Amino acid sequence: MRTLQLHFPDDALATLHTVLKQTKDPRVFRRAQAVHEVVKGTRLHTGSDTRAFPSSTLSTWAHHFAQAGAPGPVGRPRSGRPPTVTCALDMQLNRLVEQEPLPHSFLILSGVTTHSPRRTVGTGTAAGGIAPGGELPMPPNRCSMRRLLLRICAVSCLANVLFFALMLLVQPHPATILARIMFHASGAVVLQPHLARNDCVVLQMLLNPASSRLKRALAPAVYYREDWRHPCDVLRDMVEQGLKPDTVTSGTIVGEGYARYWHGYNVVTALALRVMEVQHFRRLLLACVGLALGLLALATAHGGARTRRTGLMIAVTAATLWAVPRFAREFTFGPGDTFLIAALAVIPAWPRITVRLETLVLFGSTYGATVVFFEMLTGQLPIAFAWLGALTLAAARDEHQPAGMAAAVSVGAALGAFCLSAVLTVLIKQCLAVILAEPQAAAAFLGHLQMYSGLPTSEGSSASLMAPFVRMLQETRVLTAGYAAAGYGLMAATAIGWMAAAGMAWRQRRNVNGQDRAILLALSLVPVGWVLLLPTHTLLHAWFMVRIMIIPIALVPVALWWPKTPDHVRQTGVSLAHAG
Question: Considering only CA atoms, which of 428, 417, 411 is closest in space to residue 145?
């Protein structure tokens, strides 16, 4: 059969590209794809075989487009009962229609097929865009996006229900807590308040009386002197002198219901102090962080080249340059660090989740909510965000298959679910605190948020926005066992490596390797975004927020030595017209 002889306008291809970008109807999209092949000069029988349509149907669509232009592929009103296909079924049917028939012995599992080198389903490209090899992918389905958002919200709500139940059920025994503190009174908790300031806050939340279980769970009481600077002094007076801070009315001690965070570490600390002394619990936390790092290294050791390099680099740099011996012993760092690392090991241990959108979104939302549960604005949130993105990219690239999602889409889905779930968790916590325990919780939360996100002040005047960056640079000695010169050298080497990797990404910007390096370099800049978001908080707490610099320290080497993508994988967008 010869090529269909029709007269098409000069702008026919441009018109079809506009239809492909704007339409949300999969049926119209498929018609426009088929007509696009005909307009390009493809023979009618070749186009019908490629698209699995009868030649007569394709001829009809081509004639409609030649006569009516853009409205041609839309079709005409039909008589009869309107379709009642649900969103979920519509998505599955569209996906199956777009796929070529698979060879015998191939299986289709959950809508994602096993490897088939002749087929490319463009779920990994932008809506209406054209894949590198000319493939015109299906546009994202509104129903699927809406369903994914509902799943994220449902997971976040269920996670917060679990968090609330844990906070209510695991209540501390004040007498036991006091006995543990008194036994440990000669240790770091009381005599070194600067190093264990947050530990003093946690112990106060467990020890101080509360009017109800709800109050202790959602807004535990904390007392301090001089604007949050000496909570350990109050704890010392409570232990050594029997001070009851809730009865002091002289104004020297100020208290509040500490409702800004979930305080998930309170659950872990309360359970541990029932059965062990404070110093033993500290050692246990350090051991747990070490085991989590070992688990991550072990899980990545048997993965693909990118997963192995990314996971091992994260594990090695965290073990050596994350100040683990100093911070892992503290109550507000140890539980969160352990979960952050151990949960990341799920990705290399089960890399298939990175090419299954629904599963990846569930993992990302659960991970984001739980990180917030253990977070006290101590830097774990940006670290988890960046490392989640890096490991998702590596595993998705190693698990590449033509019918799966593109690696960049996997990264975006995981990080989007992580962020949305984290925000929802914060909002749910504040709503529960306002309704059930502390009416002023929202005002206190917003006040601190405004202060932390504002420009730093110095002696009554606004300081430079560079002040938190300079302070972070000065505190890099924390990462290098107290050696300031080593800290400066580490940051200089990281900056040079970043620029070298950026040059490599620019030179390779038109292929997969350059795009992957660009994603990793963007993730390595998460600390910059965090400081710009909360500059005052970073300046005030630079001595522990410097730990977020582990992000570029770990990811820049990964970007520099990112494995080269084989040519047969690089050509991810093979056109269906050439597949036949």
Answer: 417
Residues 6+ apart with CB under 8 A from 304: 351, 394, 395, 397, 398, 399
pLDDT over 50 at 279, yes or no = yes
- Backbone torsion region of residue 281, taken as left when φ is above 0, otherwise alpha when ψ lies between -120 and 50, otherwise beta: alpha
Q: How many CB atoms lie under 10 A from the CB of residue 79?
A: 4
Residue 202 tokens, joined: 């946690």
C-alpha angle 325-327-333 in degrees, rounded to nearest 5 = 135
pLDDT at 74 over 80: no
Length of the chain: 580
Q: What is the mean pLDDT of residues 426-433?
A: 96
pLDDT of residue 232: 77
Query: Does the pLDDT of residue 477 top 60, yes or no?
Result: yes
For residues 37 and 41, give the distance between their C-alpha atoms in angstroms, rounded to a whole number.
Answer: 7
Rounded Cα distance between 40 and 47, Å, is 11
Tokens standing for 207?
Answer: 């020890």
Task: Return the CA Rg of the chain.
Answer: 29
Q: What are the tokens at 468?
A: 């938190």
Range in 127-141, 145-159, 351-365 the model is least confident about: 127-141
- Mean of pLDDT over the chain: 80
Give the phi and the psi of residue 4 in degrees, each rounded to 5.
-60, 125
Q: What are phi and psi of 195, to 5 degrees?
A: -75, -25
pLDDT tens string 107-118: 444 344 444 443
- Rounded Cα distance between 379 and 458, Å, is 23
Can you tell me the distance from the alpha carbon of 9 to that of 227, in angstroms, rounded to the nearest whole number?
74
Distance separating alpha carbons of residues 49 and 42, to the nearest angstrom: 11
Tell me the C-alpha distance between 94 and 103, whole Å: 20
> How many Cα atoms sit within 13 Å of 325 on the Cβ side?
7
Alpha-carbon 457 to chain mean position: 32
Lowest-pLDDT choice from 90-99, 450-459, 556-565: 90-99
Summarize pLDDT for 375-386 with one digit per residue, the tens.
Answer: 999 999 999 999
3-state DSSP call for residue 134? strand
What is the structure's pLDDT at 59?
Answer: 77
- Token pair belonging to 446: 């917003």
DSSP, collapsed to helix, strand or coil, labels residue 457 as: strand
Tokens of 498: 């970043």
- Classify each residue of 386-404 as buried b or exposed e, where b means 16 or more C-beta atoms within 10 Å of its C-beta: bbbbbbbbbbbbbbbbbbb
Element (H, E) at 113: strand 112-113
